[in-house]
């Protein structure tokens, strides 16, 4: 479930994650459209221009009733942010984004309130695990 990108942002090659759900859709797309060279081609079977990609995204944003300006780079930023919020190590995100320096990746480490709310004190974790151990011990003792 990886995707190899040739000549992406900054003309770099990189490997990134491919969603299992997207892989299924992509397989159907490839079977149906049989692209020549580019994985996703325009109706003339050529590479989409950056302005076409922006227009497609703008149209999709309208259809989704989002009242916000969305640009393609925001998708990259959202990808990194969601991975961070799920606890993915920054070094993996750096690799998937193709950053040479971890400093570049660190711009994605802005803190969201959602992430802050999910942080638990190490003391709470220790106390909770001891409480669970005592409950299990009591249950086993009473058997």
Describe it for me?
By secondary structure, the protein is mainly α. 55% of the residues lie in helices and 6% in strands. It contains seven helices and two strands, in the order ββααααααα. It has helices spanning 20-33, 50-63, 72-85, 90-97, 102-105, 113-117, 122-141, and strands spanning 2-5, 14-17. A two-stranded antiparallel ribbon has the order 1-2. β1 (2-5) and β2 (14-17) form a beta hairpin. The longest helix has 20 residues, at 122-141. The radius of gyration is 22 Å and the shape is elongated. The chain starts with a strand and ends with a helix. The mean pLDDT is 83.
The share of residues in helices is 55-70%
Q: Which percent band covers the strand fraction?
A: 5-15%
Mean pLDDT: 83
User: How many helices?
Assistant: 7
SSE string: EEHHHHHHH
Beta strands, count: 2
Distance between the termini: 47 Å
Classify the secondary structure makeup into a structural class. mainly alpha
Profile the largest sheet: 2 strands, antiparallel
What is the molecular shape?
Answer: elongated
Spatial extent as radius of gyration: 22 Å
Low-confidence stretches: none
Short description:
This protein has 143 residues and is mainly alpha-helical.
Keywords, please?
2 strands, 143 residues, elongated, two-stranded antiparallel sheet, mainly alpha
Topology diagram in text:
Blueprint: E1 2-5, E2 14-17, H1 20-33, H2 50-63, H3 72-85, H4 90-97, H5 102-105, H6 113-117, H7 122-141
Antiparallel strand pairs: 1-2
